[in-house]
Amino acid sequence: MPSRSSDQELDEIGEAQLVTQLRPYPVEAYEKDYGPDFIVNLTDDDTDDSTHQNIRSDHFLIQLKSTGKFDSDTETVHAKLTIEHLKQYMGQPIPVVLAIYDDTTREIYWRVIQEYVWDTLTDENPDWRSQTTHRITIPRSRLITDHERLEAAINRTQSRIDRRRQRALNIGEGVAFTPEDFSELEEHAEQERLSYRGHKLLIAQQYLKRGDENEATESIEEILNADYDDEATVKALFAQIYMRNPADGEEAVEMAEFAHKARELAANLEMDVDQHLATIFQQVAALFVFAEKRTEMIATDRIQSLDEFEVPEYGYLRDELSADLFHDELATMNALTEELAALLDNEEYYAYAVALPEIINYLTKRRQLQVLSKNDPEPGDSGHCRYRSGSPKGAGSDDTEGEETTLNENAPISQAS
Predict the structure, then answer these.
(1) CA distance 38 to 48
(2) Closest to 414 in 3D by CA, of 326, 296, 295, 307
(3) Is residue 158 within 8 Å of residue 42, measured between CB atoms?
(4) At residue 32, what are phi and psi to the nearest 5 degrees?
(5) CA distances from 36 to 30, 261, 309 (A)
(6) Which segments of 100-178 does DSSP mark as H helices, in order?
(7) How far apart are CA 256 and CA 241, in angstroms?
């Protein structure tokens, strides 16, 4: 496994510090291939329950830079951003905060990028858009733990964004619009839609953390029922997957259906990691369906162990079904292994870790079935399989085993149990 660099470790420390220092605001990863790293919701105290926070509709983005290069006695910190990224941030419908984590002081310093560009950069360098990069300096007095100051800046910036957007939409007579103008308006509308849908997902996540699945489901279904196929739809499908218990046969089928939809949509949107993850969940759901079939076989074994219910052909039929199940399990496990290997090859360790719990749950379930299923076929002395028609060992019967029926079976059934 590739070793982590010191920069990766520093980034992880900075991310952990950001979550800690922004409490009680919910901080979530902003999963895009470019731009901001996190999205944060503002909160209010719950007047009915002091242990809970009410999530407000106001939220903002954070671009986090982690470094250990500054001396602790300097009065400022700084980070260099590309002009392309600055333009992207200025096009956002919500505030974007540049946050710099200084490992020497374990503090995070911040600045709202839109305010900085409006009030400082444009005055000092009107031609900044023609450059390739720009260095933003932040005083050490701007600690992100000063939540009151941060929240005031977020609210102030959001008001200015709204006013600017409103002025841009006031179309009067005699005003000419070019195709580029309408493209920009469409881009703003797209950003607004994604912002709202992303907010609904965050609301759903908070409901799930509180154990309120009904409210969470309402928010998730609002996203899925809308006539859009975007990143928010993929994430909503994953939310439906996470709310299913694959150990329940019917929910495993539902999980597979949601995973199939998420995989196809992620492929269309070129969301490679989500496509791998959805494929993994689809395969895990299939394995649990196979496990459910084996559970039914064990129950049938118990019935067949009783003389009055014994069917002479049952041993042969059971071995055939077990062989088919084994081949399906083996093919699914091989495909699952390939998907996991793809995540590791691309160093997508977080997605890999997300997939592991359900895989471990399946392996535990499979082991339990192996212990319970004492009547699974065993390899004979010459590559044949034997089915014991007597009572399963440990099922409350005596130790006498029934007749053995020898079958010519080429499938390695013993490996499946």
Answers:
(1) 29
(2) 326
(3) no
(4) -130, 160
(5) 7, 27, 66
(6) 113-116, 122-124, 147-169
(7) 8
pLDDT-derived band of residue 112, with 50, 70 and 90 as boundaries? very high
Which of the pair, 300 or 102, is modelled with greater confidence?
102
For helices 272-304 and 249-268, the axis angle rounded to 10 degrees is: 160
Over residues 225-247, the pLDDT tens digits come to 877 788 888 888 998 998 888 98
d(CA 250, CA 228) in angstroms, rounded, equals: 27
Predicted TM-score (pTM) of this structure: 0.48
Cβ neighbours of residue 356 closer than 8 Å, sequence gap 6 or more: none
Structure tokens at 249: 């046969």
The Cα 357–Cα 246 span in angstroms is 12
Q: How far apart are CA 287 and CA 289, in angstroms?
A: 5
In eight-state DSSP terms, residue 309 is G
Q: Judging by beta carbons within 10 Å of its beta carbon (0-12, 13-18, 19+), is residue 72 exposed, middle or buried?
A: exposed
Q: Contact 284/364 with Cβ under 8 angstroms?
A: no
Per-residue model confidence as pLDDT tens digits over 289-329 = 998 888 888 888 878 776 666 667 777 788 888 888 889 98
Q: Which residue spans within 68-156 are E strands per DSSP?
A: 76-82, 96-102, 107-112, 133-139
pLDDT tens-digit profile of 339-369? 999 999 988 888 898 888 889 988 888 888 8
Please answer whether residues 103 and 17 qualify as being in contact, where contact means their C-beta atoms are separated by less than 8 angstroms: no
